[in-house]
From TrEMBL:
<dbReference type="GO" id="GO:0007099">
    <property type="term" value="P:centriole replication"/>
</dbReference>
<dbReference type="InterPro" id="IPR011047">
    <property type="entry name" value="Quinoprotein_ADH-like_sf"/>
</dbReference>
<feature type="domain" description="Anaphase-promoting complex subunit 4-like WD40">
    <location>
        <begin position="333"/>
        <end position="384"/>
    </location>
</feature>
<dbReference type="InterPro" id="IPR015943">
    <property type="entry name" value="WD40/YVTN_repeat-like_dom_sf"/>
</dbReference>
<dbReference type="InterPro" id="IPR024977">
    <property type="entry name" value="Apc4-like_WD40_dom"/>
</dbReference>
<dbReference type="GO" id="GO:0072686">
    <property type="term" value="C:mitotic spindle"/>
</dbReference>
<dbReference type="Pfam" id="PF00400">
    <property type="entry name" value="WD40"/>
</dbReference>
<protein>
    <submittedName>
        <fullName>WD repeat-containing protein 55 homolog</fullName>
    </submittedName>
</protein>
<dbReference type="InterPro" id="IPR052779">
    <property type="entry name" value="WDR62"/>
</dbReference>
<dbReference type="InterPro" id="IPR001680">
    <property type="entry name" value="WD40_rpt"/>
</dbReference>
<dbReference type="Pfam" id="PF12894">
    <property type="entry name" value="ANAPC4_WD40"/>
</dbReference>
Amino acid sequence: AFSPTQKYVVSVGSQHDMIVNVWDWRAGLKVASNKVSTKVKAISFAENGSYFVTVGNRHVKFWYLEYHRGSKYKEPVPLMGRSAILGEQRNNDFVDVACGRGETADSTYTITRSGLLCEFNNRRLLDKWVELRTTSANCMTLGEHRIFIGCADGIVRCFDPHTLQFITTLPRTHYLGVDVAQGLDISHMSSHPKKAKYPDAIAVTYDERNMKLTCVYNDHSLYIWDVRDIKRVGKSHSYLYHSACIWGVEMFPEGSLPHVPPGSFVTCSSDDTIRVWNVDPQFKTHPGTVYQRNIYSKELIKVIYVDPELNSLKDIELAGGEKAENPAAYDGKNGVRALRISPDGKHLASGDRAGNIRVHDVETLDEICLIEAHDAEVLCLEYNRYSHGKKFLASASRDRLVHVFDVEEDYNFVQTLDDHSSSITA
């Protein structure tokens, strides 16, 4: 964290060194340091720059900077730290902190993982707290008159920093598994299925001058909310991205099909989705096709969800750097690993990490074929050039086999080549 004057920057090492350092970064000097007893999850500087606050599990500590400013020596001095008086909240996991601004500059606000918003006074005493009514609180940001807190299930709540009174809850984002191409006007955002699930808000920042709140969610989507009228919060911008690493990118053949906007391309990812994009701001979509410019994202025009359970859309790693209980979950069989568009632009073939090959009709994006082809992940797919009569699709896998399929015979199996002794990557 930078101090308000930008003179100092504070860094905290976790796990191996557990030290808080204060640097005069322009001079390249470490001016103060001290040990910390627990993993620090967040830091915030007081508005006047005289102290900063760190938080973590059962940890809220105020660190004071004033005394070393007059030091003539180049050696770092011990950083003076004082623990907050937590009272009955001493066993909580504090995940974020923000020091007050303006009239509330003497106050420090923290949130707990369990869903409490706490206020500490200038004597480091826990003054008051309110329940956020959420399963998990993840992040916070504030201005002089607003505190915004990002919570689980797409919830962002707003409170008054003077009184900790609840003001409003922001609108929900898209639900997981939304068909973006159906979102032709803003009313689509308010019509959600009954058992819809939502991404968790994991980072928030407030631009007080322009009255904009930017939120990042754990499906890697980003929303900018207009909070000028806090009782009628509106969406300013939104962007929907892949939730995990991208394994393949393919351009649609130019002029192949009238219903695919020119310049469109398709990507596949470990999040078990295939996404169709177009970054031309002038492109036009044809009404009645599956590819539509929509209210959710300027560039994203269609999503194919390969996993109906949508298990890989949310980041498994939790906010605050906490590891999930099952770190091997991403190393499982989820994810679309390879894709290829046929030369005539009519078929989209994809291979997943479980060894299955799917073929979608590009016009309707209906799945027209599912082949349980390999015993390990499909690493590459290739169509032959259609100008030579017969039409074939070849697939190669980590199981060391190459399979060939006849496109015109509903992708019937033709031949296996087993000459390789290790994974086939191209």
